[in-house]
Amino acid sequence: GDSVTQMEGPVTLSEEAFLTINCTYTATGYPSLFWYVQYPGEGLQLLLKATKADDKGSNKGFEATYRKETTSFHLEKGSVQVSDSAVYFCALLYNFNKFYFGSGTKLNVKP
Amino acid sequence: SAVISQKPSRDICQRGTSLTIQCQVDSQVTMMFWYRQQPGQSLTLIATANQGSEATYESGFVIDKFPISRPNLTFSTLTVSNMSPEDSSIYLCSVGGESNEQFFGPGTRLTVL
User: Is residue A75 predicted with pLDDT exceeding 90?
Assistant: First the structure.
């Protein structure tokens, strides 16, 4: 069945470091892919998305490219800030309106 | 994107009791969903709340335990019935967007003693 696998956290970085959070998926067909972010004590916010192969989603300095050949959707940011500390979820859309979420990766950014 | 509110934001309940969580959206939406996020875990879809008909439950979730109402296109409730400590979780409602994304409410943090 469809599934999403994320790298385990926590990931601890210093401010201005480069961030990569790996996400791979298993799916029949060509799902849409998403990254959501959950700040402490809050609900999930949509960070970015990509709907087809080679699409690049971007928002707030974060980017992810839909790679069909490697079934991946890795999240990257060139220079993280303390305010980026949160839990990041990779998600796959299946069956038109249902999501599979990855297990989440906690990011801690130190000043 | 839609603005979604949930009530209560958090609650502490005794085992054996029930809690009803409300989800209000600032615009009419076709699709509404309820998720559970157990401590330190990812999100699991409980059910799709259908306006004017019974909710559609995912495997492992049943109507007797999690009755859902959807009286109109802007409102839904989820009840957690006969609670046990294992029901301690964050419960989130979400709505479908125009491009198949989902937007989430702030969540209800439930602790069952």
Answer: yes
